[in-house]
Amino acid sequence: MLLQKNTLLRYLFPALLLTILTGGVVIAFYANHPRAELLADTWSYLYVVDRISVAGQLVNAWRLPCYPLFISVLYAIMGQGNIEAVSIAQAVLFVLATLEIYILAALIFQRPWLAFILSLMMGINLTLISYVKPLMTEGMGLWLLASLTLSAVLFMKTLRRRWLWLTALWMLILFMTRPEWLYLPPLLFAYVLLQAYKKQRFRRLLPHALAALALMYALVGGYIYTNATQNNFVGTTWITNINLVGKILQYNMQDHGDPSNPEHVMIAHTLDKYVRQGIRDPYYMMAHEPKLFGNNISEPAKYAEYIILHHPKTFALDTAPLFFSSLTAYAQESLVDPTGVLGQPLAVLHNASQIFYATNSLFPLCVLLWLGLLYFKGTRRHPIVQLMGLLILICVYGIMLTTAGGYRDYDYMRIYVLFDPLLIVIIWGFLLWGLSLLWRKVVERVTTRKSKSGHMRGLLFSCLCLMALILSGCEGDLTTPPTNHSLTLVSCHREGRVGLLFMRFENRGVDVSSSSVQLLFKTPYTSQQVSMHVDLPPIPNNQERLVTVDVPVHGPDYWMPNSPVKVTLNLPRTDRQPQSNFTTDCHDPS
């Protein structure tokens, strides 16, 4: 019992320390530029959130449902349009994922100090946090993949059926959030069942694995069927179609269609017209060629699929170099504000994270090392080798699917965020584990219980000092003096494809419990200006809300504004402010 208690304390203290450090860095990063960040792809997820809220429509041809459901639940709890709460919730998921990586590394290496170092490399990594803060699927996807991997590792160590089913559940939620993970389950289950076979548990676990796979893909099949009948699209998301077009444009294969097919000739001619102008972005072409790219881009996607299937060697040879170059393709989303809270130390940490990301180039070497360990009989049965093989399988799958499906260099980094924590465990785990084995052979470590406890107290004191510094620095930025200007329009974004306006209102005064706005704008389809009355949700002081506006429809056309939008605030009489009229072009500068 005493031994178990000491073992628990050995692992519990680093976990507490990790939570403090990771939480402190995340708080500092958010306090540096507190506004919730909406990126170019955010609006499509918010559109699905609107469909869920207005029509209860979970199945959509544009985006998968799990992340919009996550936002919808937070809206229901924290207030409609509360995008700040969504961003903060994603930070909480990141801290949880960091702790899961700590447990994962501890299970693999059986060394708390090594697990702490590996998870801390993730927890204070501003490159990862910069993709967690914006309203995108990366924060949720990172947590889901960490949970999935931890469950799979626990299954491999215990061979208990409940961990197998929990792994299946995480996989289902993951690929209903990010479609590129749809084909992982058979590969992952094949690997873990191979380990079960070596331990003579294969027959007992195989029916459960097959049942889990059948259930997962039956749900996916039902989703695709609903998409086909409800949205006239056979598939999970039409984003895969645009990726197909993007790939042939990336490899300059747009002229490899069937020359005897008039439709292929027409599509190739259209694509070449933009390529000659230096434009290879299918989204740009979609906006300027609505007829060709209509119907969920089905025709260009069929054309691209034909090219890839009839030129597999060319496609494979062009994709192979990306497996290596994409590992270090760097781009950061949420940037540190040098003038914000703790701007200077965060900038230093950001630069360190960018340099650290370059070590991903060592991953192919780690794969070769693992294959070498797998080759020799003396090492292939070692638990570390088997468990690291699982992590390598997941990462290789992610890299191969990303390089085969992604067509923009700056997108590789965004997609790699999900399994970058696993890359850290693989690369630095191999390195530090090997060094620790060498150190044990060369030098005898002589430590006493007293020195250990003193060292732990010193580390805890340092963490508390760091947290005090961070919180003291945040106070001035997070507290804004109240003014009599209680509500202002921050920005407006139009999503013309689905007829939505997204308007951000920020409150820097007293709480506003009930209010509304009157919108006035011109459209190409009406002789008179369109007038709309929109109710605003309650907006507490020092918070903001995102309001989704469904514009009117006339026949097949949305009455979207083609002129500046005039916005008139209707506030309760008790809330006075000098400005109640705004005129804005409906686009979001972010």
UniProtKB/TrEMBL annotation:
This is Glycosyltransferase RgtA/B/C/D-like domain-containing protein. It comes from Dictyobacter aurantiacus. Keywords: Membrane, Transmembrane, Transmembrane helix. The keyword Transmembrane applies. The keyword Translocase does not apply. The chain crosses the membrane at residues 12-31, 61-78, 85-107, 113-132, 139-156, 168-193, 205-225, 355-376, 388-407, 413-435, 456-473. Residues 571-590 are annotated as: Disordered.
